[in-house]
Design goal:
Radius of gyration: 25 Å
Shape: globular
CATH architecture of the domain at 18-137 and 198-252 and 568-647: 3-Layer(aba) Sandwich
Strand order of the largest sheet: 1-2-3-4-6-5-7-8-11-12
Number of helices: 26
Length: about 650
């Protein structure tokens, strides 16, 4: 589930809502037969050179009942956005994107991260994105910001003790303190929390499609959105044409008690790719056993790199999992077998290089010029065009570096303190679709940062681990200038900024709400504990198992068992709605076996396992995007999967020179 830090800019601008009724045409979803309430997009949904509100995208709201069994009772608004197709003659069956979470909310990233991820699908169809009930800009009756602000100091003070008891990171632990306070506040107001569940969400999808006048529509679900997509398929609303499920959370998997197995499966998936390569298999025998011994060794006696970076069992776990699951950094996977062997022999150099993303520039470098002997004039023209593109890429990078250097100089010439410039720059990078890829591990580190020791070493390490290239250079140059007063100021401001950041607290609350409604008592802490001896790699599973046991016992103030056993039956469909299932070998959030299980239950589904791919296949490769587009164009036909084999990593062998 993708996570962004500090992206909520406050309330939606207060503007007059416009009602429009237009006739269905060939241009886009904006032209439907239905009356819809279009409103200005929230300020965070930015306009860019290529995305212009009311031209290439727009936002609106649909009203739905809190309780579908009482349709005339209390109503809530769901906010949606439409990325209009880039085609002049788009298909008439749009795609409704179902975000992860639950409670994630992705409307804020409509014009940057989502526009980039969904660009291939958008060439043929409009894309509709909506924040599900209880999340993002569709909070419904879930409003606890005053509670969060009033208790933020106490949450920060309690974070250490909660982290120790649960195994959570410090940022999640601070939010954990606030969750029951929010539940108590809502219960005191008489808010019925039982209606914030996946079945209600699925009925919201059908209501959205009907309100927008879609005679035919498709579903693309990601992460929790796949569980929601399965429930939509089970309800089978009128007009449902095709369903793509990317990184599946099946309804019949007790995922909260089984979540630790995703970490183990991800590493075993990487190991499996190594075994499929004879050179790798011969070079790295008994890799699983070597890793287990290494975890035990580091637990007893951690190592340290030459620069003083601690090499602990927890740090090794984090590096392996982030390498597997971070889009844009999966290149590190090909180094992992060698890194494990090196560490087992006491050599920490490769660990440090991967931890600080030292090879990022080399691995992501643009292609060199093509020097090919080609037989025909037409072929030479294509080679010349390829080389011109390479030259343009180099020129653009040089220009970007010059502009970045100029911007850095401008920032340092202002009267702002270095701390203020650092925080402003960090905030801009977090919200730019063109900067370093930032994932949920970044978010955890970012929220925990003000709780860590206030030193330049800690701050510099944070920058080097999560940023590379020009971004890292700018931030590191600022850190290098900090005096003790600057460090004190930046940590004070970091804490104040995070204190009033609603999104992570709201996400934590919504996740707990849906977990308790949907998954308890179908999941239990006792079974989570009983599963622990079955894991083959305890170093990758123990901390996660401990956290899951804690969360499954934390439903005080929340409804449980709302959906009953029927919801947890496998979804089979009847074959009338084509379904495509994606999974990635490296997924640490939804195990690849879960996706395969869902595909086996679904009548007539297609199943694709993408090598060297983490959570959300279309985040990782153009191959996955093209396969998705081919499926939606002709969902009844088998898709050409020739590009999948090209994703296999080329593992670094012991004798190979490092960059």
């Amino acid at each position: 589930m993708p996570l962004r830090v500090l992206i909520r800019s406050g309330a939606i601008p207060v503007c007059a809502a416009l009602l429009f009724t237009v006739v269905y045409g060939s241009a886009s979803v904006a032209q439907t037969r239905t009356v819809a309430e279009q409103i200005p997009c929230p300020e965070i949904v930015t306009q860019t050179a290529t995305e212009i509100e009311d031209n290439t995208f727009h936002c609106g709201v649909v009203r739905v009942p809190v309780d579908y069994e009482n349709p005339d009772g209390r109503q809530i608004d769901l906010m949606y956005g439409v990325l209009r197709s880039t085609s002049l003659s788009p298909a008439r069956d749009p795609i409704i994107y179902l975000h992860g979470g639950p409670g994630g909310g992705e409307l804020a990233s409509l014009t940057n991260a989502l526009a980039e991820r969904l660009a291939t699908l958008r060439t043929r169809r409009d894309i509709v994105v909506f924040d599900q009930r209880g999340s993002g800009f569709s909070p419904g009756e879930i409003e606890c910001n005053e509670v969060f602000v009033a208790n933020s100091d106490a949450a920060f003070n309690a974070a250490g003790e909660i982290a120790e008891a649960s195994g959570m990171n410090l940022g999640a632990a601070a939010t954990e303190y606030l969750i029951p306070l929010c539940a108590a506040h809502l219960n005191a107001q008489g808010i019925d929390l039982t209606h914030y569940n996946t079945v209600s969400n699925a009925r919201d999808v059908a209501r959205l499609a009907k309100t927008l006048g879609f005679n035919s529509f498709n579903i693309y679900g990601h992460s929790y959105g796949t569980r929601l997509g399965l429930e939509v398929l089970r309800q089978n609303p009128s007009g449902l044409r095709a369903v793509l499920l990317d990184s599946v959370l099946p309804t019949d998997v007790a995922w909260r008690e089984r979540l630790p197995e995703t970490n183990e499966e991800a590493f075993l998936g990487i190991h499996g790719m190594c075994l499929a390569d004879p050179s790798c298999a011969n070079a790295y025998t008994d890799l699983v056993e070597t890793l287990n011994v290494l975890f035990a060794t580091l637990t007893a006696e951690p190592l340290a790199t030459e620069s003083g970076l601690p090499v602990t069992a927890e740090a090794l776990e984090k590096l392996i999992l982030s390498s597997a699951n971070q889009a844009g950094a999966e290149w590190r996977v090909r180094y992992l077998p060698r890194m494990i062997i090196d560490l087992s022999e006491g050599d920490t150099d490769l660990f440090e290089a991967l931890f600080f993303m030292v090879y990022a520039e080399v691995e992501a470098a643009p292609p060199t010029a093509f020097r090919l002997e080609v037989p025909s004039f037409e072929a030479r023209l294509l080679v010349n065009r390829a080389n011109r593109l390479v030259e343009q890429s180099d020129l653009l990078r040089e220009t970007a570096e010059a502009l970045a250097a100029q911007a850095k100089g401008m920032g340092l010439d202002t009267e702002e303190t270095p701390a203020a410039v650092f925080l402003r720059t960090l905030n801009q990078l977090e919200n730019s679709p063109y900067s370093t890829d930032l994932d949920s591990l970044y978010a955890a580190d970012r929220v925990a940062l003000p709780l860590r020791p206030a030193t330049t070493d800690v701050l510099g390490r944070f920058v080097r681990q999560h940023f590379s290239g020009v971004d890292a250079e700018i931030l590191s140059s600022l850190v290098a200038q900090f005096e003790p007063d600057d460090i004190a100021e930046i940590y004070r401001r970091l804490r104040n900024l995070d204190r009033y950041s609603e999104q992570l607290n709201e996400l934590g609350f919504a996740l707990r709400l849906f977990n308790c409604n949907d998954s308890v008592p179908f999941n239990s802490s006792e079974r989570a504990l009983a599963r622990m001896p079955d894991y083959r790699i305890p170093g990758l599973t123990q901390r996660e198992a401990r956290m899951m046991r804690y969360e499954l016992n934390a439903c005080d103030g929340f409804p449980t068992g709302t959906l009953g056993e029927g919801f947890h039956a496998p979804v089979t469909g009847d074959g009338s709605v084509p379904v495509m299932v994606f999974t990635g070998t490296n997924d640490i959030q939804t195990a690849t076996s879960w996706s395969e299980q869902a595909a086996n239950s679904l009548i007539g589904s297609q199943f694709v396992r993408f090598p060297n791919t983490g959570h959300g296949a279309t985040l990782f490769s153009q191959c996955a995007k093209d396969v998705a587009a081919a499926f939606f164009d002709q969902p009844e036909k088998a898709v050409n999967l020739a590009c999948v084999n090209d994703l296999m990593p080329s593992f670094v062998l012991p004798e190979d020179p490092l960059p």
